[in-house]
Design brief:
99 residues, mainly alpha, Histone, subunit A
């Protein structure tokens, strides 16, 4: 088990600018030690044949071709609007005189 000392936790907390009480420092020393042990265990299993990765599943964009389709007419788009002027939606002002 890796030894994470209270002094090391105080140092890390200072670097992160986090104020910790003494009981928090003691608790975090044990928790951080367990985390370091877990990382060491993973590192010991990962050999040179295992490439480093930041995500377990390969990520990629799912794209489709843009195709022109049926679009709404102005009248159809405004049909469900609570208020409109015939060609645009009408909404209440959200800015005051400071515009």
């Amino acid at each position: 088990m890796s030894e994470m000392t209270p002094d090391a936790v105080r140092h890390l907390a200072g670097l992160a600018r986090i104020a910790l009480r003494d009981e928090e420092i003691l608790r975090l020393a044990g928790e951080l030690g367990a985390i370091v042990d877990a990382v060491e265990a993973v590192q010991s299993v990962a050999g040179d044949d295992v490439p480093p990765t930041s995500h377990p599943i390969p990520l990629g964009n799912v794209l489709r071709d843009d195709t022109v389709g049926n679009t709404l007419t102005t009248e159809e788009a405004l049909a469900g609007a609570p208020d409109h002027d015939g060609s645009r939606f009408r909404v209440t002002a959200i800015l005051g005189d400071e515009q």
